[in-house]
Amino acid sequence: MKLTGKEKAAVFILSLPDDDAKKIMEGMSEDEIREISRTIARLGQMDEETVKAVREEFLSLFENQSFNVRGGMQKVKDLIFKVLGKEKGRHLLKELQQGPKNTPWEILNEMEPTLVATFLANEHPQSIALIISQLNAEQASFIIDYLAPEVQQEVIYRMAKLGNLPPGALEDIEESLLAELEAMGASRGLYTSEGGGGVKKVAELLNLMPRDTSDKLLAFLDEEDNPLAEDVRKEMFLFEDLLLMDDKSFQTLLREVSNDELLTALKGTDDRLKEKFFTNMSERAAEMLREDLEMMGPVKVSDVEQAQQAILKVARQLEADGAIVIMGKGSDDVVL
């Protein structure tokens, strides 16, 4: 059985008592531990002849001993926890289970948004829309914000018109992206996504973008296709939509929001929404918040929007976890 250098190292470490294996791995860098762990995870049952051959190569003193070596994720877990401790070990295990970031979409999700925007600048708006539709919403919103205004409009419009993409629809784009990313030093790996754009994806992106930018893009959609723009609005979740929450859900949200964020977010908001917050707090907490708002000086609009977006992000996560219900949005309304 022909083994690579990494596989030989993995077999040798697995053939040692745990304490000895730990000592060897303690002398490795985190990158080396990551590589050897991936190799161990891929190993199956190793025959005795192969193990002996590996040990003879590494250490002739062990040539007459028999060993039973088996890899797998459990062995990786035991070794990593012993070497790195539970906290770092869990992080590395999660990374191992997810696999290396070598697909074009994973690579673009990890890149700086400004770099991705520059990378996509010369692409056709339809191609940009397809590419961005495959990225996570937060990264996509940052990238769009760095595109030229006229490109933003075209990309958002084309994304809203996209449906779910069938397998194989992105193969040409993937190959092109992989070639360009590879030239930049990125890893190569093919991945076919079945995700896509559409009204919900556009609404999610606009939710995460600065309010003035999202308003301009919605105005453009209104001009191009008013029914489409209305569909996007129905799916959007704005700070004012917190009024749609029942009191129990609202109180759950309040427990997850910091006082500083709440104070900034409420600056200059609608009185009805402020009252919604006040009535779901204790009398003392509500009074203190009122006083703080009255004493608060001018606040940048961008700071208010940032605080509101932070609270909305918490609300969306709580809703996704089933901890709260936000009524009246999209097709998932509840019947009371």
Assembly status: single chain
The CATH superfamily of the largest domain is known as Flagellar motor switch protein FliG, alpha-alpha superhelical domain
* Average of per-residue pLDDT values: 78
- Please give the CATH architecture of the largest domain: Orthogonal Bundle
Order of helices and strands: HHHEHEHHHHHHHHHHHHHHHH
User: Which shape, going by the Cα principal axes?
Assistant: extended
CATH topology value of the largest domain:
Annexin V, domain 1
Q: How does the helix and strand content classify structurally?
A: mainly alpha
Describe the protein's topology.
Layout: H1 5-14, H2 18-26, H3 30-42, E1 45-46, H4 48-58, E2 69-70, H5 73-84, H6 86-98, H7 104-110, H8 113-120, H9 125-133, H10 137-146, H11 149-161, H12 171-183, H13 199-208, H14 211-224, H15 226-235, H16 247-255, H17 259-266, H18 271-279, H19 283-295, H20 301-320
Antiparallel strand pairs: 1-2
Helix pairs in contact: 1-3, 1-4, 2-5, 3-5, 5-6, 8-10, 9-11, 10-13, 11-13, 11-14, 13-15, 14-15, 17-20
Structure commentary:
The protein is 66% helix and 1% strand. It is an all-alpha fold and 336 residues long. It has three domains: 94 residues, Annexin V, domain 1; 132 residues, Annexin V, domain 1, CATH 1.10.220.30; 82 residues, Orthogonal Bundle (Annexin V, domain 1), CATH 1.10.220. It has a two-stranded antiparallel ribbon with strand order 1-2. Helix 2 packs across helix 5 and helix 5 runs antiparallel to helix 6. The protein is extended. 27% of the residues are buried. The C terminus is likely disordered. One of its GO terms (cellular component) is bacterial-type flagellum basal body.
